[in-house]
Amino acid sequence: MLKQNLEQVGSTKKICGDKNVIPPTAEEMKEYKEIENLQHSSLFRMQIKELLSEVKVSFAKRMKIEKSVQKLVDVLQNLPKGESYQLNDQEWVQKHGLSVPLVQKPSTVEGTFCFHPPSSVNIIGSFPLDTCLKLGLHVDIAVKIPKKFFDTRDFLNQRYIRKRALYLVALAAHLKNEAFVEELSFTYHHGDPYKPILIAVLRDAKDSCEVHIHPVTTYFKHSRFSHNKCNVRQAWFYSGTDVEVKDDDENLLLPTPYYNMSILKDLLITENQNLLKESLCVDSGQLKDGIILLKVWLHQRDLNTGYGAVSGFIISMYVAYLLKLKRLNKLMSSYQVFRTTLYNLANSDWVKDGISFYNHESQENAPTLDSFIEAFDVTFVDSTGFLNFTAALSSYTFLELQHEASMTLEILDSQNRDCFHTIFIQKIPFCMRYDQIFHITDMNALKELSTKPKFSQKNLDFGGSCVLAVLPNLMNFIHKILSKRVRHLQMKPIVTSKWSVNEEPPHNSLECLTFGLSSDEEHCYSIMEKGPPADHQDAKEFRELWSGKSELRKFKDGTICEAVIWLNKPTMYKKRMIFYEIISFMLNTYFSIPPEAIVFPATCIESILTLPKEASPEEDYGTGEEASIKVNQACDKLRKIISDIKITVDIKDIQGISPVFRFAEVFPALGCRDSPNCLSQKNRNIPSPDLCPHYCPVVTVLCMVGTQGQDPEDLETLYRLKALYLLELMKSLQKKFKLVISYHKQYLDILVDEIVFRLKLCFNPEIELLKEPHTSVEGEKVHSNESLCLWAETRVMPKLTSVLRGLGQQHQTYGLVVRLAKRWLAVHFLSDDIPAIAIELLVASLFLDPYPFEVPRGSICGFLRFLYLVSTFDWATSPFFVNLNNEYSGAEISQIKADFSVRTSFPPMTICIPLDKEVVSFWTREKPNQMMLNRLILIAKQSLCTLQEMLIWPASDLKKIFRPSLEPFDVVIHLKHDQEASPGQAIDSIGRRNYPAFLSNPSNLPVVDYRPKQLFMKDLRETFGHLALFYSDEYSSSVIGVLWRPKIFQPQGFKVSLVNGQCLFEESSKENQLVPNIEAIIEDMKILGNGIVEHIKVKTMSLLT
Hints:
Layout (H helix, E strand, L loop, with lengths): L1 H14 L10 H12 L4 H14 L3 H19 L6 E3 L4 H5 L16 E3 L5 E5 L1 H4 L8 E8 L13 H17 L5 E8 L7 E7 L5 E8 L18 H4 L11 H4 L4 H11 L1 H11 L5 H16 L11 H13 L9 H14 L7 E2 L12 H7 L4 E2 L13 H19 L5 H7 L4 H4 L2 E5 L2 H8 L2 H9 L4 H17 L3 E6 L7 E2 L12 E7 L8 E6 L5 H7 L5 E4 L5 E6 L6 H4 L2 H14 L6 E2 L1 H6 L18 H19 L6 E7 L22 E3 L2 E3 L11 E9 L8 H23 L2 E4 L3 E6 L2 E9 L1 H6 L1 E2 L7 E2 L2 H26 L1 H16 L8 H13 L10 H14 L7 E2 L8 H13 L8 E2 L17 H23 L18 E5 L36 H13 L3 E5 L6 E6 L7 E2 L8 E3 L8 E4 L1 H11 L4 E6 L7
Parallel strand pairs: 4-7, 8-9, 21-24, 27-28
Antiparallel strand pairs: 1-2, 3-4, 5-6, 5-12, 6-7, 10-13, 10-17, 11-13, 14-16, 15-16, 18-21, 19-20, 22-23, 23-24, 25-26, 29-31, 29-35, 30-31, 32-34, 33-34
């Protein structure tokens, strides 16, 4: 690549007319070396440059903002002194029509408040450092409060915190009348309830300024706010409450680390700003660009918002820390800074080891690093040795940060992936990142918990915020009881929105807590929690933890151990509910949170794949996984039976190709049911017109055979041989195994263990015989449509089924996500227009190439990612690759992309797999068309947006996205419920409940593959397809939607061939003009559907005129 670039540079110089080729400059050589050694391509480097130019604030914009902000700074620097009040006397706040942005509990506190003008006002943060982003742009303004504003004891019992809040109110009172200020509001800085800030939206720049208050750095001793000091007394905080306060000194002076760190951040705000300013000096533009890339990366992963987030300040400080350690230097490019920072993040442990600017070993006046590690989850100490930047950061957030950093490095190391889009463009929302989402909805239980002795000190330290007080213990407990079942646990960040300056601040206003779990595929669904042996010293602790659930059990290896059994002979559906069983029981036991307050949305989503209890009274159907296994076992039995017989033809192999073999059948059959009202014909039943028999699907299997002697030379001979071999096979099976079999010239229907298999014989010469002669090359043949279909069915589909079956066995969630996707497709009337195999391939890609996520191990996250993929992929300009077994080489992918750019023979939805190289994107070559693809994308976008919103609120009915509106249809045909072939499969099932018994010792083959609605749909399309489009849900037989083709309402000249369904248009100025006779068409539909149609509803009567 470097040689190529140099040649391009040289040729450019010659074109310019220069006789001597000028060698590249040192800067150019540096760029070329970086591209060759570090980055994938020059395109990746160009994309980073373009991204930086898009997200950075332009010079003109900066000048405009600085000019506007300067007005605010001037006003703040010239404010007059105010009157003196007691801290409890806040009537002056009400007189100004304002509210204090702080929850003041308890309400009484000693001290006075007298507003003094700021000693200085400065712009701080990322704006002066030139590391801010356009997105969410704001300017941080530091207002320094003079010494005379404070008293020496203001560090105690929230005096400083309340004075700070009142100072903000005083600033708001002065600014609300300024003409250049458009809007004033309060919010908590990074969700810290101790740290309200004032947000001023300036009229000129339309950007916001965040006003921060801080004292003179030297006013309070830093050691006063050491994390092991107590600055809030229990006797004061719990005065007037029912909380019991112990009088001994040990409890009265318990440390308040969070409270102390919150004040220290204000005290040291200037020092930390100066440290960043020195590290990111004027000539280190690449370092600043690297920080901007890191901020974009954090933003796309939602790691920088809410309480306890990894803020832009923390990541900037970490870059400065790496500079100090000389792991970064100012000569590095922005990409090198980005990559090196992620590498160090992924390989450093801030939880167990901690990091610090301060040398704790050589200087003894600050707390030790070990004491910080013991007091906080995550440790990153500043240069003074007293402030922990990450005091609010949980260990779970840091582990998630490390995990994302490792994943990003893997993506950067890959070669055949669009790294730039995956890392910097693709959004990674919370609900798509985790396998399981669950909510705790009872906030009152948490409020009561926070007043218990166990949490009283935490509640005091967090200023009465019950969630922040209880949350660390709650998360540690959940992680402990789930242990090896989960790899990551995280709570959705608590984001505090801004509120008007005249409104009360939010306090304990959360409606629920939302958690995400990344499960361990090997252990997550284990129904047993195995403990230590009965005589082990840990046995007592295990029994106490599981609170009566534990019991002694003897295992196969002879050991007798404590164990907890959660479920007895469960289906996979119930196994996936084991997280609910464990969490609800344990939280109710230890935290008094009722089980009904624990909500797992996945249960609601997966329930659409269940059947009513009446469908299988003897065994639990669950979500059908066990039924799929039953079909596969029956197929294995059939394979063994056929291998035990000998016929003229050589049977090489038997392979199933139906979706059930790929774990992709939406409702796998439990077995054939009795049809008492059916009529008998030969050795099979035929349906009765009185009552629709229960649907019995056929499972297709291919029997690969080789002929004896010379291959047939024509199709007629081959078909006769095939019929002969099938007849011979049937007789052998009936004679030896007494199987119920129905004979057809092209296949056999065989009943094995209540499953009907459709066995087809496959001969290799058949594909060649179906080919057509080449139009221009004599002696050569090309594929006809028939030969292509046979090639796909007999050559490609068995291999594809084998690969996808293996994927389903490796990842149990694969089949579940495929079936949810197909069910979603069906309810939106798209099953007939989107090939089912295309859906299976799209879902497979989520498991084969999951980046920037991990492989989905939960139904909701997998389904969300499927919707995201369908709705965001650029189908118009790119082919979609599903690289099964990594059989595609880089050269092959590049060639297909090059051919695709011409776009002469590629379908609208191009899905390429290595198995169909002979005909690229065979499975989507005919459908969907562009219109249906656009509809698919639109519905996927709407469903994705709706589902993501509903996942946040536990009371939401997630089935909403599976209930489409019938409003778009011009006509809706309602069908009779007694003609439902598959009752119970509708989203809101209201069909019949009398399920016939399963077959036992049948003499005839049951009615197979019979669905009246599908036959009626076929008749409608054949009869009225030129007039309308017909849509229905494949799994719900209740309605058929009809859309008139727009062109049919244009009057046409009279022709005999056009008179069907037409009438004369009397209002036309021309004679003998025809228009559709809607009344007659509707009547014909009723006649055509006699016995199955309940009634037909026409949307508007205007179509009948």
